[in-house]
Amino acid sequence: MPREMFVREVRELQDEMLALGSMAEKAIARAVEALTTRHVMTARQVIGDDDLLDEKRTQIERQALLLIATQQPVASDLRTIAAVMTVATELERIGDYAEGIAKICIDIAGEPALPPITIIPRMADRARDMLDRSLEAFIGRDVEAAKRIWNEDDHIDALYDQVYHELLAFMISDPATINRATRLLWASHNLERIADRVTNICESTVFMVLGQIDVIKTPELAR
Amino acid sequence: MGPAGSGGSMSDTLGRADSGPVAAPQQATPEHEADHVVEVRRLSLWYGEVQALTDVSMGFPRNKVTALIGPSGCGKSSLLRTINRMNELIPGVRTEGEVLLNDVDVYGKNVDSVEVRRRVGMVFQKPNPFPRSIRENILYGAKINGYRGDYDELIERSLKQAAIWDEVKSNLKRSGLALSGGQQQRLCIARAVAISPEVLLMDEPASALDPISTVKIEDLMRELVTNYTIIVVTHNLQQAARVSDYTGFMLSDEETKGQLVEFGATNDIFTAPKDKRTEDYITGRFG
């Protein structure tokens, strides 16, 4: 097997995955920015750009399948390609969550803002940071970092709980806010789901390096 | 049936197929597979002064396909040939350790090598039918081994088991050499199963065949394994991945000739091998 060519093609595949990662990250940032500034134009762009993420993911999948078909990779080579395919799917889904936030922005742009909206950008920053570092851990084959990031999901969950309770208080005290508050809850739920997807990326890293599935979920390793 | 040794009939001497597994600590044993037809214990082999196997221990599970892989000169064919004592046909060969067939050492004093080779059939890289009719090819070994049953029945059953019956049944008097390469190899497999062995050794059985014939041999191996234990040496890693239940990776390096580096379930070896040398070999980094 022309190993040199294979190594190059796997590297290119990972580069494409990173490109998709940065597209997803940007989509989160812009969607949340649109939501907080109620900038409908930006939201529309995020929605339009989601097609690009879908295309990129399809391209990665096609490239990965071609590599499997032509090079018949095994062992760590196979695990790497399988992991890239999984991560690409996760990134594409993250893009969908960002698109969802952009749609919420359009839905409630005409209504006055609610204070919990200040926590949402914090959640988004945190999720983006986790996403960024999870891809770094993937490229660096850093199992320890992947496990650390996996555990950070709790912080996002805690922020989500905070948003949830604050929005609930608003809805109880002033039913006129129910429409806005419910949608903001959805938006923050999307961010919470994005962090969950990041944990899946971390699991893919562990699988790629160690060849073990679900190892990260065992309590002694997760803590 | 070959001449019996002093300890009674040869079948008794070599152990029965239903005799229980032997606990063999320290040997490479696939997990959850305790029932081994063949067990190799601390086996070393020399061709004259040249060592070809070093301290190999492994068990071959019953009714499973075990593949032996490794670069040229790693000792996999030598290991295969110790199992039916084919190596002793080469002058100057010396072995140490044990090869147990149903718990009895095939190199034991009272064991007849002809009987061992009846119990452990072999299929070679190049198809080697006798220059006789298809019928004679099947009956030859059976007659030598004193088969007393219905010849026609034996021929049909053997050829069917080797998935070649439909292609040759119309003219069994045709010479075995008139068949295509792939058909010849299946005829050789039919000849091997005609004498009811327990183990089938296959040394690169498809390497001289075209892709279609290769697929037929691979399919056949999966069918045969319900009745036999198959040990196959192959250079084709994808073939090992496709047909085998267990895989042993062998290697010769400067210090150690013909060592067993890793042995385990094929699924594990090809997705997450434990030893870096196995990983490097199967991913094409060397060999």
Query: How much strand of chain B?
Result: 15-25%
Net shape of chain A: elongated
Residues in helices of chain A, as a percent range: over 70%
Number of domains of chain B: 1
List low-confidence stretches of chain B: 1-12, 15-27
Overall geometry of chain B comes to globular
The strand order across the widest sheet of chain B is 6-7-8-3-9-10
How many extended strands of chain A?
0
Q: CATH class of chain B, please? A: Alpha Beta
- Determine the N-to-C terminus distance of chain B: 43 Å
CATH topology grouping of chain A: Methane Monooxygenase Hydroxylase, Chain G, domain 1
Share of residues in strands of chain A:
under 5%
Order of helices and strands of chain A: HHHHHHHH
**Range of helix content of chain B:** 25-40%
The main pleated sheet of chain A reads as:
none
- The CATH superfamily of chain A appears as Phosphate transport system protein phou homolog 2, domain 2
Account of the 3D structure:
The complex is a heterodimer of chains A (223) and B (287). The longest helix of chain A has 35 residues, at 3-37. In chain A, helix 1 runs antiparallel to helix 2. Chain A is mainly α and 223 residues long. Chain A has one domain: Phosphate transport system protein phou homolog 2, domain 2 (Methane Monooxygenase Hydroxylase, Chain G, domain 1). Chain A has eight helices and no strands. Chain A starts with a helix and ends with a helix. Chain B is of the alpha/beta class. Chain B has a single domain, classed as 3-Layer(aba) Sandwich (Rossmann fold), CATH 3.40.50. Helix content of chain B is 33%, strand content 23%. Chain B is built from eleven helices and ten strands. Chain B has helices at 10-14, 76-83, 113-119, 134-144, 151-161, 165-168, 181-194, 211-224, 237-243, 266-271, 276-282, and strands at residues 36-47, 50-61, 65-69, 93-101, 104-105, 120-123, 199-203, 229-233, 246-251, 259-265. In chain B, strands 6-7-8-3-9-10 form a six-stranded mixed β-sheet, sandwiched between helices. Chain B has a four-stranded antiparallel β-sheet with strand order 2-1-4-5, with helices on one face. In chain B, helix 4 packs parallel to helix 7 (181-194), helix 5 (151-161) crosses helix 7 (181-194) and helix 7 (181-194) runs parallel beside helix 8. The longest helix of chain B has 14 residues, at 181-194. Chain B is globular. The termini of chain B are far apart. Chains A and B meet through helix 3 of A and helix 9 and helix 11 of B.
